Amino acid sequence: MSDVLLKVDNVRKEFPTHAKEVVKAVDGVSLEVFKGETLGLVGETGCGKSSLARCMAHLYDVTSGSVSFEGTEISALSRRAMRPIRREIQVIFQDPYGSLNPRRRVGSIIGDPFAIHNIASGVARKRKVQELMELVGLNPEHYNRFPAEFSGGQRQRIGVARALALRPKLIICDEPVSALDVSIQAQIINLLADLQRELDLTYVFISHDLSVVRHVSNRIAVMYLGKIVELAPTDELFGQTRHPYTRALLSALPVADPDTADSREQIILGGDIPSATNPPAGCRFHTRCPKARADCATAEPLMIAVLDDTDNHRTACHYPLTLGEDLSTAVPDLKAS
Amino acid sequence: MALLEVRDLKVSFDTPDGAVRAVRGLSFDVEAGQTLAVVGESGSGKSVSTQTITGLTRGATVSGTAYFDGTDLITADQSTLRHLRGARIGMIFQDPLSSLHPHYRIGWQIVEMIRAHDSVISKKDARKRAAELLTLVGIPRATERIDDYPHQFSGGMRQRVMIAMAMALDPALLIADEPTTALDVTVQAQVLNVMRRLQQQFGTAIVLITHDLGVVAEMADEVVVMYAGTVMERAPRRDIFYRNHHPYTQGLLASLPTRSGERLTPIAGSPPSLISLPKGCPFASRCPHVFDKCRTEAPPLADIGPRHQSACWLPVQASEAIAS
After folding, report:
1. In DSSP terms, which residues pair with A42 in a beta bridge?
2. How close does chain A come to B70, measured CA to CA in Å?
3. Which pLDDT score, from 0 to 100, does residue A40 have?
4. Which GO terms describe its molecular function (chain A) (predicted)?
5. In this predicted complex, what is the ipTM?
6. Closest chain A residue to the Cα of B263, Cα to Cα
7. CATH class of this structure's domain A4-224
8. Which class is domain B4-225?
9. pLDDT, tens digit, 9 for 90 and up, residues B16-43
């Protein structure tokens, strides 16, 4: 698992607002996606996870920095030059209702990638589409149906089939199960796992739901206000949490187990996520961090291996958590000493 | 007697395709000061049932009774309901943005709500009360922010405003319909915390409608599991998670992502259409333990233990053996 498939290097993505300000959606993110892995990307609303994902797939032009796929820089490619690489990177979106054209038949929706890339037409295309439908667990006889005739879970399968059509290497899954009921969500998660094994796929899996991300990911990156604050193998992120924000996020996650729910430490963060147009100086989390100190407000922490962590586990925090440290009783102290 | 007693509630909607039988014989009790969680997936009838109880389903065909403190809410006239809603029964919905009027200041909306039910309170006192309520639900600098518009509040703050309004007149019952579904987890934790605190302080009973079994485990005293408009299982919280009986309850729990990353066990298929429900148990077509009787005769909700009921033909021991 050491081959780098996609490399994101110091990527920034800014959006202008009409008040002549800029929203810094992604603000200097670097990471690598290894071949065959599932990299989870978690964070709350507005943390920049979807923007980052769109930069990865070159659906957005980056403001600065670079994205390279198998060693080729793609962030500056024109649409035409991007085309062959587009076959290798596909996206599955959250909304199984909004991402399928309601007036087109499912067969032609799934067949679009073949048409666009001039791969197959006529009977050959239909055969390929029906193979795909079978692969994702749809009945191939439903080729001529409209999206409205399918349930939410089936529509998400249509989205998966379309993404698989060109046999991509990397699939970016942007909240693929968030709109689905749990029993259906489990069907799609299993499907994605099966396909990964059969087709040797690499996933970037974005979700606000930590329990889903924990289940599917080999490594997880936690984002807050446009930056990654912690990146680690899944077990380490949960077992050896270093960043106070990661810990708060984990502790806020409701657990479907009354014994755990009654006994665990809960850290209730104060306030709301600050605005991404004018993020706090220093560490962005310092305004809500239970153990913030004076230097957190001035010096920005770097993403490094802290304490005795290996380079697989990087954290951007001046005062990382030690094993077993109790954060629920910590109090911030922002006065300069 | 329980604070709220719902018996054999049936709700259907006429559509061009036929009658949608959204709720089909629902019974439950809510005790004073307790939290009842109603859990189920999309279309299980969990929201429709509480909306009907509070008189918010226009055009539906309704039968059954829902006694709240001696008044049957189903047959009560609009003015009685209007008096009860807000004053004795507070409500919070999923989307706080569409529940607040965008053109009016937060404080004005809370004051208006208080004065609608209290004809003697002065404007000044109502405003003072509004500021107190905002402080109570954890809005910082409440006396300044009382004059903000809803768009100046974040999602979590708006939901706290909704809780403040729902709690304004110290209701005996709070109906919370997916109150934290639209919120991020850290904000959800804040809001659930506020609800828990207010319940302890004022002894409010809560009906919490949710699809999230994690929220159920954190908040509930008792749990009702709904499917296709009817109750599949009802039990105290720990029994639902550790000694459950119904294959649907078991299926829901098995569908949840696990720590270990082991393969999940989804429930096969999808829920039945509420227009043409099959004979027998509504879960039969998806149930891993289905047998002949399930397809012909719907199982009644029967007692299987203390405060524990399940609508399934499987004997209690057999279900426990399957679960373990």
Report:
1. A207, A222
2. 34
3. 97
4. ATP binding; ATP hydrolysis activity
5. 0.84
6. A190
7. alpha beta
8. alpha beta
9. 888 999 999 999 999 999 999 999 988 8
